Q: What sequence folds into this?
């Protein structure tokens, strides 16, 4: 049950990132192990919908149950493999398409309020005049102003900045490029940061964000930075670069931006991925209604 050619296809043709390739490989190999150890088969043509269903059940009924979201992701990876093999005449059909996917409980995106972000960005957290503080503020502000993913922040290079037009070229999932605008505030602090970066890095490399030693930042570096700074203004458990992305989208929607514009700025290929923010906006409206309307039941979040 080889998958080497499939992974190479995802890398060379689909242009998936190394992290995505690793996830696909890991998920599919879990099914391969299941087939060999439980179903006693070792070729893809022998896989049936019932086998896939039994694998799905085994993941969710184990001592440490796998979340519905992870199960759906693994089944999606497996389905993509079968579609690929069907196109190449290796199998006749896709057994995954006959399996009912587990439902994912709806959870609203966690975000930080504009007031909390104002407290962080305009407060005492970034007063010290040193490179690390300037870099940290530039990263936090860029994540909040543009809604970039952590991986996108890490991979930014000097050539991605169009300071003449005040826009940034962002290379997102699937190597898709999108353009996001800079605010005047971001433009100014970015110019200040670039001067300090030039002194530290010179022409050694083109990566925009660097560590105190001038080497390119990495995923955990950005993650730890954001967790630390968000901890200064919020006590919520979830504090990550993605929370800043959620905060960006929620703020735009609550201030009148259309959902399609937000989709493009976030780099979502499907509008359904963006529509989750409309639920956040509705919840906010409910709270405001119940607090402000004289006939609303105080303390209730139920609005028909």
A:
């Amino acid at each position: 049950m080889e998958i080497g050619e499939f992974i190479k296809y995802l890398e060379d043709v689909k242009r998936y990132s190394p992290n995505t390739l690793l996830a696909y490989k890991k998920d599919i190999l879990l099914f391969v192990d299941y087939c060999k150890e439980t179903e006693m088969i070792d070729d893809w043509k022998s896989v049936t919908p019932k086998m896939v269903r039994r694998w799905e059940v085994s993941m969710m009924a184990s001592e440490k149950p796998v979340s519905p979201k992870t199960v759906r992701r693994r089944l999606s990876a497996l389905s993509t493999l079968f579609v690929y093999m069907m196109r190449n005449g290796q199998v006749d059909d896709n057994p995954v398409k006959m399996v009912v996917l587990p439902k994912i409980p709806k959870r609203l995106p966690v975000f930080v309020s504009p007031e909390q972000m104002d407290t962080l960005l305009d407060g005492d957290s970034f007063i010290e005049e040193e490179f690390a503080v300037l870099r940290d503020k530039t990263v936090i502000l860029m994540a909040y102003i543009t809604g970039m993913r952590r991986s996108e922040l890490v991979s930014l290079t000097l050539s991605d900045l169009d300071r003449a037009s005040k826009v940034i070229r962002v290379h997102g999932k699937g190597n898709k490029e999108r353009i996001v605008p800079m605010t005047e505030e971001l433009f100014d602090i970015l110019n200040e940061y670039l001067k300090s970066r030039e002194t530290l890095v010179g022409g050694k490399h083109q990566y925009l964000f660097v560590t105190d030693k001038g080497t390119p930042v990495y995923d955990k570096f950005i993650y730890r930075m954001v967790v630390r700074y968000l901890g200064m203004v919020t006590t919520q458990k979830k504090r990550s670069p993605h929370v800043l992305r959620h905060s960006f989208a929620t703020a735009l929607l609550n201030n009148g931006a259309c959902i399609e514009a937000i989709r493009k700025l976030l780099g979502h290929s499907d509008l359904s991925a963006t529509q989750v923010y409309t639920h956040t906006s509705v919840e906010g409206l409910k709270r405001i209604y119940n607090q402000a309307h004289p006939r609303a039941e105080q303390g209730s979040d139920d609005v028909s």
The chain has 13 helices and three strands. The chain has a mean pLDDT of 89.
